[in-house]
Amino acid sequence: MREALFIKKNKDRWLRIQQMPSSDPDEMATDFIQLVDDLAYAKTFYPAGKVTGYINTQASRTYLDIYRNKKEESNKLAKFWKYDVPLTIRKHYKVILFTLIFFIVFFAIGFFTSRQDEDVARSFFGDQYVDSTQENIRNGNPFGIYEHGNPLFMWLGIMINNIAVSLRMFASGLALGIPSMIDLAKTGVMVGIFDQFFAGQGLGVDFWLVVFVHGTLEITAIVLAGAAGLIMGKSVLFPGTIKRLAAFKQGAKDGTKIIIGLLPVFALAAFFEGFITRLYNDVSWLTTIIFILSVFFVIWYFVVWPVVLGRRMAQFIKEEEE
User: Rounded to whole angstroms, how far apart are CA atoms 250 and 51?
Assistant: First the structure.
């Protein structure tokens, strides 16, 4: 059977499964078995075809829906962060990797540009901030800026601001993700300039150990928020084998999952910035431990766990085919 005829014959059923998935366990199981059969056929006759990847995605999603409906799994909210968010990240890992590289490139641009011209930092942060920070450095307290202000108000203000920024970056996906990338580029340049500002004073290591007490989670979440906007924009530009509107709905849904999944990350990062980072002089062992734990958490939750889940699902599908 030609690939075009195969698609035409099964397209309506695939779209129905994608756009109106059944909530009945028996019907879901039937849909899954049919998708696995379709996937086996497609892999045999169209191994390099886009339809094969599309069916694989639908089968994986249906499997996850079945897994959600197991009686022993009752906490839907916990499952959302345990399975839905990591699997969505795994699904769009190429977009997320591109976004990360994009951020790193502009971080490097900001770092090396600032290294050549010290006035770049003043143009970004303002004379008052630069002068006060230089004064703190001379007084032996380079990150004293984090010791000012009410911790509670700082926490709430930073959290609300960062969530608002992430929502704007995601919503910018409606404009094909271009504004999302512009915001991400600005953030990358700013962090690069900020890093060089301290590295130029011989405080490069201190910058990472102090600022990234909260920055590890915050920057990770910002990069993923930019990716969420790009995912939605990409779904419009490259709908694949399904209709553009259906692809956009799916891209918006996946992007929304990522943004919602990032809310506690933003809240925790803001809490660290408001309450913990300021302790770097008095309880440096605590801030160092939190920095290390944050790095491990980011690697595990946003890299390792999505890969593990993806492999489990791939293995399950392979066993069903056999």
Answer: 16
Which pTM value belongs to this model?
0.76
Query: Residue 120: left if φ>0, alpha if ψ -120 to 50, beta else—which one?
Result: alpha
Cα 286 from chain centre? 27
- Which among 243, 308, 198 is positioned nearest to 11, based on CA atoms? 243
pLDDT tens digits, 88-107? 999 899 999 999 999 999 99
In whole angstroms, how far apart are CA 263 and each of 152, 267, 270, 293, 296? 18, 6, 11, 19, 19
Q: Which amino acid is at 320?
A: E
pLDDT, one tens digit per residue, over 225-252 is: 999 999 999 888 888 777 888 888 889 9
What is the rounded distance in angstroms from the CA atom of residue 30 to the CA atom of residue 37?
11
Buried b (16+ CB within 10 A) or exposed e, 173-204: beebbebbbebbbebbbbbbbbbbbbbeeebe
What the block records as the tokens of 260 is 């919602």
- Minimal CA–CA distance to 274: which of 213, 195, 233? 213
**Residue 199 one-letter amino acid:** A
Residues 6+ apart with CB under 8 A from 303: none
